[in-house]
Every structure is written in C-alpha cells, then in structure tokens.
Design brief:
The complex is a heterodimer of chains A (about 120) and B (about 110). Helix content of chain A is about 0%, strand content about 50%. Chain A contains no helices and eleven strands. In chain A, the strands form two sheets. In chain A, strands 2, 4, 5, 6, 9, 10 and 11 form a seven-stranded mixed beta sheet that branches. Chain A has a four-stranded antiparallel beta sheet with strand order 1-3-8-7, with no helix packed on it. Chain A is globular. Chain B is about 0% helix and about 50% strand. In chain B, strands 2, 4, 5, 6, 9, 10 and 11 form a seven-stranded mixed beta sheet that branches. In chain B, strands 1-3-8-7 form a four-stranded antiparallel beta sheet, with no helix packed on it. In chain B, a hairpin with a 3-residue loop joins strand 5 and strand 6. The chains are: A mainly beta (about 120), B mainly beta (about 110). Chains A and B meet through strand 5 and strand 10 of A and strand 5 and strand 10 of B.
Chain lengths: ~120, ~110
C-alpha cells in the first residue's frame, strides 16, 4: 500500500534553513509527481511546487521561488524540501502529496511536518 | 493567480440536513477538485473533475458546476461528515485552494 512518511517536527531559528523529508513506499517512486503543500496555523492550503523524481524536474509557485528547493533521491525513494531564510511566516505544517497519474488529483498525503520558526 | 472563494467559511448542519458549499473562481477553470480534512489529519481526496467521487466516498456527496462557479453538496448530513472541505484548481499555475469551509455537526 502507498505510504508517505515525513520527518518529524522541527524547531528552528529565524534566518536558518531546514530540510524535511518524505519517504515513499508501496509504489514506483519515479513514476509519480510529488507535490509539497503548506498549511499555516489555522489557515488553508497553499501549493508550493512539485518534483518529478524520474528526472528531477521541478516547478514552483513563484511565491516560493528562492524559499523552497525540492529534490529527490531515487535510491531511497525520498523527496526533500529545503526551506531557507526562515521567518515566523514559515511556521506551518508542510505536507508532501503524491499526484495520481490517472485521476489527476493528490491521492496520498504524508502526515505533515510541523516547522516552528522561533528564536 | 486564480483565487478560489468558498462560502460559507463555517456552517453547522443537523444529521439528515442537506449541505451545500460553493466555490467561486476569479477566472474560469476546467474542473474543480475537493478535499476533506479532519482536525489534525491530512487532507483526503473527495471529489475530482468537478463531480466524480474519489474512492470510498459515499454517494450522498456530489459536486457540480462549470466556469467560475462550483458547488459541493451533501444530500443528508451524517456525523462523520464534520470536517473542513477545500476546493482546489490546477487549471492555472500557481495551483490554488479555497480558504476552506468548516462544517460542524449541529
């Protein structure tokens, strides 16, 4: 069965960076786009971008250009998102979500990684 | 950027009551998608391509609409339907979500 396991809660300082992971299992990692989505406290969902692990291609929401960097490691079936120059605005839960190639929606989501930016 | 505006933002319904949520797009989109999120959990796919139910979704749910106006309906509210529902479009980049409608049990 498809599973997406995300790394644990992060407490980080302003101006620093953090790299969170999303380990996929139960399917061919290189065959599906992996998206990242942000949910700020009490707020809705915001699309950050996607990576295609098969070739490493990425696409970002312009809002996150320079903020988020998406990578993928085929050998470990793990997608990563690095967030840089963190501010309190980046405090949020970050989800990875697999894109279904047939029905064209986010069919499986990770449990989310909470990032808190605080000095 | 296409802005999706959901209404209402919160509502309460009694068991058996019909529920309708609307999602208006600032520009025309090809299809609307809906996700259900319960407190502390990840979103789940609920409706895709405007009106098709995702796997396991009960048939009391339905979706309709076109262009800039879409709706999401529960024909008869059940306890388990209490959640926040988000509409979503990927017709245009950046992909966007509505602000969510929190549906509570009355």
């Amino acid at each position: 069965q498809v599973q997406l396991q995300q790394s644990g809660t992060e407490l980080v300082k302003p101006a620093s960076s953090v790299k969170i992971s999303c380990k996929a299992s139960g399917y061919t990692f290189t065959s599906n786009y992996m998206h990242w989505i942000r949910q700020q406290p009490g707020n809705g969902l915001e699309w950050i971008g996607w990576i295609y692990p098969g070739n490493g291609n990425t696409k970002y929401n312009q809002k996150f250009d320079g903020k988020a960097t998406l990578t993928a490691d085929k050998s470990s079936s793990t997608a990563y998102m690095q967030l840089s120059s963190l501010t309190s605005e980046d405090s949020a839960v970050y989800f990875c979500a697999r894109w279904d190639n047939y029905y064209w929606y986010f069919d499986f989501w990770g449990p989310g990684t909470m990032v808190t930016v605080s000095s | 950027e296409i802005v999706l505006t959901q209404s209402p933002t919160t509502m309460a319904a009694s068991p058996g009551e019909k529920v309708t949520i609307t999602c208006r797009a600032s520009s025309s989109v090809s299809y609307m998608y809906w996700y259900q999120q319960k407190s502390g959990a990840s979103p789940k796919p609920w409706i895709y391509e405007t009106s098709k139910l995702a796997s396991g979704v009960p048939d009391r749910f339905s979706g309709s609409g076109s262009g800039t106006s879409y709706s999401f309906t529960i024909s008869s509210m059940e306890t388990e339907d209490a959640a926040t529902y988000y509409c979503h479009q990927w017709s245009s980049t950046p992909w966007t979500f509505g602000g969510g409608t929190k549906l509570e049990l009355k």
